[in-house]
Amino acid sequence: MRKRVPLNSVRAFEAAARNASVSKAADELCVTPTAVSHQIRQLEDFLQVRLFVRRNNRIDLTPEARANLLRISQALDLIDTAMVELGGSQEDLRSQLSVAASTSVTSLWLMPKLNEYMAREPEVDFSVRSFLTRKEAETQDTDLKICNWRCEMDCQVEPLLEEETIPVASPALKARFGGDDRALLSQATLVHVDRAYDVQEGAEPDWPRYLGEFGIARPDVKHGPRFNQSGTAIDAAKAGVGIILGRSLLIEEARRRGELVAISEPYPVRSRYYLLSPWRTEGRTALQSFKDWLIETVRHNDHVHVV
Protein backbone atom coordinates (compact mmCIF):
# COMPACT_ATOMS: atom_id res chain seq x y z
CA MET A 1 0.00 0.00 0.00
CA ARG A 2 1.40 3.38 -1.04
CA LYS A 3 2.00 6.08 1.52
CA ARG A 4 -0.49 8.91 0.93
CA VAL A 5 1.88 11.57 -0.36
CA PRO A 6 0.38 15.12 -0.49
CA LEU A 7 0.78 15.69 -4.24
CA ASN A 8 -0.28 19.35 -4.14
CA SER A 9 2.49 20.02 -1.64
CA VAL A 10 4.96 18.07 -3.79
CA ARG A 11 4.02 20.16 -6.84
CA ALA A 12 4.43 23.38 -4.85
CA PHE A 13 7.86 22.29 -3.60
CA GLU A 14 9.03 21.20 -7.06
CA ALA A 15 7.88 24.42 -8.72
CA ALA A 16 9.53 26.60 -6.06
CA ALA A 17 12.76 24.57 -6.24
CA ARG A 18 12.88 24.58 -10.04
CA ASN A 19 12.22 28.32 -10.25
CA ALA A 20 14.28 29.15 -7.15
CA SER A 21 11.40 31.42 -6.22
CA VAL A 22 8.12 31.09 -4.31
CA SER A 23 6.52 33.93 -6.28
CA LYS A 24 7.44 32.39 -9.66
CA ALA A 25 6.10 29.05 -8.46
CA ALA A 26 2.87 30.77 -7.45
CA ASP A 27 2.52 32.32 -10.93
CA GLU A 28 3.12 28.93 -12.54
CA LEU A 29 0.58 27.15 -10.33
CA CYS A 30 -1.95 30.02 -10.45
CA VAL A 31 -2.06 30.39 -6.66
CA THR A 32 -0.76 32.96 -4.18
CA PRO A 33 2.81 32.91 -2.79
CA THR A 34 1.29 32.39 0.64
CA ALA A 35 -0.44 29.23 -0.59
CA VAL A 36 2.84 27.90 -1.99
CA SER A 37 4.67 28.59 1.28
CA HIS A 38 1.88 26.86 3.20
CA GLN A 39 2.07 23.77 0.97
CA ILE A 40 5.86 23.61 1.40
CA ARG A 41 5.53 23.80 5.18
CA GLN A 42 2.94 21.01 5.04
CA LEU A 43 5.36 18.85 3.07
CA GLU A 44 8.17 19.58 5.52
CA ASP A 45 5.88 18.56 8.38
CA PHE A 46 4.86 15.42 6.50
CA LEU A 47 8.49 14.40 5.82
CA GLN A 48 9.89 15.76 9.07
CA VAL A 49 12.80 17.35 7.18
CA ARG A 50 13.67 20.86 6.04
CA LEU A 51 13.52 21.39 2.28
CA PHE A 52 14.70 24.99 2.03
CA VAL A 53 17.11 27.25 3.85
CA ARG A 54 15.50 30.68 3.92
CA ARG A 55 17.83 33.71 3.77
CA ASN A 56 16.04 37.07 3.66
CA ASN A 57 14.18 37.07 0.33
CA ARG A 58 16.08 34.08 -1.08
CA ILE A 59 15.44 30.36 -0.73
CA ASP A 60 18.13 27.69 -1.16
CA LEU A 61 17.57 23.96 -1.32
CA THR A 62 18.97 21.80 1.46
CA PRO A 63 21.44 19.12 0.24
CA GLU A 64 18.81 16.40 0.79
CA ALA A 65 16.20 18.28 -1.23
CA ARG A 66 18.66 19.06 -4.03
CA ALA A 67 19.68 15.39 -4.28
CA ASN A 68 16.07 14.34 -4.91
CA LEU A 69 14.72 17.25 -6.95
CA LEU A 70 15.47 15.74 -10.36
CA ARG A 71 13.68 12.48 -9.55
CA ILE A 72 10.67 14.38 -8.20
CA SER A 73 10.52 16.51 -11.38
CA GLN A 74 10.75 13.41 -13.54
CA ALA A 75 7.99 11.69 -11.53
CA LEU A 76 5.68 14.69 -12.00
CA ASP A 77 6.52 14.69 -15.72
CA LEU A 78 5.52 11.02 -15.91
CA ILE A 79 2.22 11.79 -14.19
CA ASP A 80 1.51 14.67 -16.58
CA THR A 81 2.38 12.51 -19.62
CA ALA A 82 0.18 9.69 -18.38
CA MET A 83 -2.73 12.08 -17.86
CA VAL A 84 -2.33 13.46 -21.38
CA GLU A 85 -2.31 9.97 -22.85
CA LEU A 86 -5.24 8.90 -20.66
CA GLY A 87 -7.19 11.90 -21.87
CA GLY A 88 -6.69 10.89 -25.49
CA SER A 89 -4.51 13.91 -26.38
CA GLN A 90 -1.57 11.96 -27.80
CA GLU A 91 -1.77 14.05 -30.96
CA ASP A 92 -1.02 17.15 -28.86
CA LEU A 93 1.95 15.38 -27.26
CA ARG A 94 3.34 14.47 -30.68
CA SER A 95 3.16 18.08 -31.91
CA GLN A 96 4.56 19.80 -28.81
CA LEU A 97 8.24 20.54 -28.31
CA SER A 98 10.28 22.56 -25.83
CA VAL A 99 13.99 23.29 -26.26
CA ALA A 100 16.46 24.96 -23.89
CA ALA A 101 19.93 26.39 -24.48
CA SER A 102 22.08 29.09 -22.93
CA THR A 103 20.96 32.65 -23.54
CA SER A 104 23.85 33.29 -25.93
CA VAL A 105 23.42 30.07 -27.93
CA THR A 106 19.67 30.67 -28.14
CA SER A 107 19.88 34.25 -29.39
CA LEU A 108 23.04 34.09 -31.52
CA TRP A 109 22.91 30.61 -33.05
CA LEU A 110 19.56 28.87 -32.65
CA MET A 111 17.12 31.73 -33.28
CA PRO A 112 18.54 32.73 -36.71
CA LYS A 113 17.95 29.13 -37.86
CA LEU A 114 14.51 28.44 -36.38
CA ASN A 115 12.58 29.85 -39.33
CA GLU A 116 13.85 26.96 -41.43
CA TYR A 117 12.60 24.34 -38.97
CA MET A 118 9.26 26.05 -38.39
CA ALA A 119 8.68 26.28 -42.16
CA ARG A 120 9.42 22.55 -42.41
CA GLU A 121 7.19 21.61 -39.44
CA PRO A 122 4.43 24.28 -39.28
CA GLU A 123 2.19 22.11 -37.07
CA VAL A 124 4.68 21.91 -34.20
CA ASP A 125 3.80 23.94 -31.10
CA PHE A 126 7.32 25.19 -30.40
CA SER A 127 8.65 26.60 -27.11
CA VAL A 128 12.17 27.97 -26.54
CA ARG A 129 13.65 28.60 -23.10
CA SER A 130 17.06 29.96 -22.20
CA PHE A 131 19.23 29.59 -19.11
CA LEU A 132 22.08 31.54 -17.56
CA THR A 133 23.52 28.99 -15.13
CA ARG A 134 24.22 25.27 -15.09
CA LYS A 135 21.91 24.82 -12.09
CA GLU A 136 19.08 26.51 -13.96
CA ALA A 137 19.70 24.37 -17.03
CA GLU A 138 19.64 21.08 -15.17
CA THR A 139 16.40 21.84 -13.33
CA GLN A 140 14.46 23.22 -16.29
CA ASP A 141 11.62 21.06 -17.57
CA THR A 142 12.16 20.85 -21.35
CA ASP A 143 12.15 18.08 -23.96
CA LEU A 144 15.60 18.91 -25.33
CA LYS A 145 18.61 20.78 -23.96
CA ILE A 146 21.76 21.97 -25.70
CA CYS A 147 24.64 22.17 -23.20
CA ASN A 148 28.40 22.60 -23.44
CA TRP A 149 29.24 20.41 -20.47
CA ARG A 150 28.97 16.67 -19.86
CA CYS A 151 25.75 16.49 -17.89
CA GLU A 152 25.13 13.71 -15.35
CA MET A 153 21.33 13.89 -15.57
CA ASP A 154 19.32 10.72 -16.10
CA CYS A 155 18.67 11.22 -19.81
CA GLN A 156 20.10 10.45 -23.22
CA VAL A 157 23.29 12.50 -23.77
CA GLU A 158 24.56 12.71 -27.37
CA PRO A 159 27.62 14.64 -28.63
CA LEU A 160 26.34 17.31 -31.02
CA LEU A 161 29.22 19.46 -32.22
CA GLU A 162 32.55 21.05 -31.36
CA GLU A 163 33.30 24.75 -31.65
CA GLU A 164 36.54 26.67 -31.92
CA THR A 165 37.63 29.75 -30.01
CA ILE A 166 39.20 32.33 -32.29
CA PRO A 167 40.23 36.01 -31.86
CA VAL A 168 38.07 38.37 -33.92
CA ALA A 169 37.76 42.11 -34.43
CA SER A 170 35.71 44.53 -36.46
CA PRO A 171 37.07 45.23 -39.96
CA ALA A 172 37.53 48.90 -38.97
CA LEU A 173 39.68 48.01 -35.96
CA LYS A 174 41.78 45.61 -38.02
CA ALA A 175 42.29 48.32 -40.65
CA ARG A 176 43.38 50.77 -37.91
CA PHE A 177 46.30 48.43 -37.19
CA GLY A 178 47.11 48.12 -40.86
CA GLY A 179 45.94 44.52 -40.96
CA ASP A 180 48.84 43.51 -38.69
CA ASP A 181 47.33 40.67 -36.68
CA ARG A 182 50.32 40.39 -34.36
CA ALA A 183 50.05 44.08 -33.51
CA LEU A 184 46.32 43.68 -32.80
CA LEU A 185 46.97 40.87 -30.35
CA SER A 186 49.79 42.81 -28.70
CA GLN A 187 48.24 46.27 -28.48
CA ALA A 188 44.46 46.35 -29.08
CA THR A 189 42.01 46.51 -26.16
CA LEU A 190 41.11 43.04 -24.89
CA VAL A 191 37.40 42.39 -24.31
CA HIS A 192 36.66 39.74 -21.65
CA VAL A 193 33.62 37.50 -21.06
CA ASP A 194 32.94 36.21 -17.54
CA ARG A 195 31.12 32.90 -17.89
CA ALA A 196 28.23 32.10 -15.55
CA TYR A 197 29.15 28.40 -15.41
CA ASP A 198 32.19 26.20 -15.96
CA VAL A 199 32.79 24.82 -19.43
CA GLN A 200 33.84 21.23 -19.89
CA GLU A 201 37.22 20.42 -18.39
CA GLY A 202 38.29 24.07 -18.54
CA ALA A 203 38.89 23.71 -22.29
CA GLU A 204 37.70 27.17 -23.33
CA PRO A 205 40.55 29.70 -23.03
CA ASP A 206 40.68 33.17 -21.59
CA TRP A 207 43.08 35.83 -22.87
CA PRO A 208 46.05 34.90 -20.63
CA ARG A 209 45.80 31.26 -21.72
CA TYR A 210 45.35 32.10 -25.41
CA LEU A 211 48.16 34.65 -25.62
CA GLY A 212 50.45 32.37 -23.64
CA GLU A 213 49.78 29.56 -26.11
CA PHE A 214 50.94 31.76 -29.02
CA GLY A 215 53.88 33.38 -27.21
CA ILE A 216 52.50 36.92 -26.89
CA ALA A 217 53.35 38.72 -23.64
CA ARG A 218 51.17 41.60 -22.47
CA PRO A 219 51.47 43.31 -19.06
CA ASP A 220 47.80 44.40 -19.34
CA VAL A 221 46.40 40.99 -20.25
CA LYS A 222 43.75 41.10 -17.50
CA HIS A 223 42.67 44.67 -18.26
CA GLY A 224 39.89 45.74 -20.58
CA PRO A 225 36.08 45.84 -20.45
CA ARG A 226 34.33 42.77 -19.00
CA PHE A 227 30.89 41.42 -19.87
CA ASN A 228 28.82 38.68 -18.29
CA GLN A 229 27.09 37.84 -21.56
CA SER A 230 28.70 36.74 -24.81
CA GLY A 231 26.14 38.68 -26.83
CA THR A 232 27.08 42.06 -25.36
CA ALA A 233 30.79 41.29 -25.69
CA ILE A 234 30.25 40.48 -29.37
CA ASP A 235 28.33 43.74 -29.80
CA ALA A 236 31.27 45.59 -28.25
CA ALA A 237 33.68 43.94 -30.68
CA LYS A 238 31.45 44.78 -33.65
CA ALA A 239 31.45 48.40 -32.47
CA GLY A 240 35.26 48.43 -32.50
CA VAL A 241 35.73 48.56 -28.72
CA GLY A 242 38.39 45.84 -28.85
CA ILE A 243 39.14 42.24 -29.80
CA ILE A 244 37.37 39.21 -28.31
CA LEU A 245 37.96 35.50 -28.11
CA GLY A 246 34.93 34.53 -30.17
CA ARG A 247 33.23 31.16 -29.89
CA SER A 248 32.70 30.03 -33.48
CA LEU A 249 29.09 29.04 -32.78
CA LEU A 250 28.18 32.49 -31.46
CA ILE A 251 30.07 34.65 -33.96
CA GLU A 252 28.92 32.70 -37.01
CA GLU A 253 26.31 35.25 -38.11
CA ALA A 254 28.58 38.25 -37.44
CA ARG A 255 31.37 36.70 -39.52
CA ARG A 256 28.97 35.77 -42.31
CA ARG A 257 27.77 39.40 -42.46
CA GLY A 258 31.35 40.71 -42.37
CA GLU A 259 30.88 42.45 -39.02
CA LEU A 260 33.74 40.48 -37.44
CA VAL A 261 36.89 39.04 -39.00
CA ALA A 262 39.44 36.55 -37.68
CA ILE A 263 42.80 37.99 -36.62
CA SER A 264 44.70 34.83 -35.65
CA GLU A 265 44.53 31.06 -35.41
CA PRO A 266 41.95 29.21 -33.33
CA TYR A 267 42.90 27.95 -29.88
CA PRO A 268 44.10 24.32 -30.27
CA VAL A 269 41.44 22.85 -27.92
CA ARG A 270 37.80 22.78 -28.99
CA SER A 271 34.67 22.95 -26.82
CA ARG A 272 32.08 20.22 -27.15
CA TYR A 273 28.29 20.61 -27.06
CA TYR A 274 25.83 17.88 -26.11
CA LEU A 275 22.19 17.26 -26.93
CA LEU A 276 20.10 16.04 -23.98
CA SER A 277 16.81 14.24 -24.58
CA PRO A 278 14.51 11.75 -22.80
CA TRP A 279 15.33 8.05 -22.91
CA ARG A 280 11.88 7.25 -24.26
CA THR A 281 10.71 9.18 -27.32
CA GLU A 282 8.08 6.81 -28.74
CA GLY A 283 5.34 8.80 -30.41
CA ARG A 284 7.19 12.12 -29.99
CA THR A 285 7.40 12.93 -33.69
CA ALA A 286 8.14 16.64 -33.15
CA LEU A 287 11.02 15.82 -30.81
CA GLN A 288 12.59 13.39 -33.27
CA SER A 289 12.09 15.69 -36.26
CA PHE A 290 13.82 18.54 -34.43
CA LYS A 291 16.76 16.32 -33.47
CA ASP A 292 17.10 15.20 -37.10
CA TRP A 293 16.93 18.80 -38.34
CA LEU A 294 19.46 20.02 -35.77
CA ILE A 295 22.00 17.32 -36.68
CA GLU A 296 21.49 18.06 -40.38
CA THR A 297 22.02 21.79 -39.72
CA VAL A 298 25.25 21.13 -37.84
CA ARG A 299 26.61 19.00 -40.67
CA HIS A 300 26.18 21.90 -43.10
CA ASN A 301 27.82 24.48 -40.82
CA ASP A 302 31.30 25.62 -41.82
CA HIS A 303 32.06 27.18 -38.42
CA VAL A 304 31.58 24.11 -36.23
CA HIS A 305 32.89 20.57 -36.26
CA VAL A 306 30.65 17.51 -36.24
CA VAL A 307 31.53 15.11 -33.43
TrEMBL record:
PROSITE patterns: HTH_LYSR. InterPro entries: LysR-type_TF_proteobact-type, LysR_HTH_N, LysR_subst-bd, WH-like_DNA-bd_sf, WH_DNA-bd_sf. Keywords: DNA-binding, Transcription, Transcription regulation. Residues 5-62 form the HTH lysR-type domain. It holds the Pfam family HTH_1. Belongs to the LysR transcriptional regulatory family. PANTHER family: HTH-TYPE TRANSCRIPTIONAL ACTIVATOR TTDR-RELATED (PTHR30537:SF5), HTH-TYPE TRANSCRIPTIONAL REGULATOR (PTHR30537). This is LysR family transcriptional regulator. It comes from Jiella mangrovi.
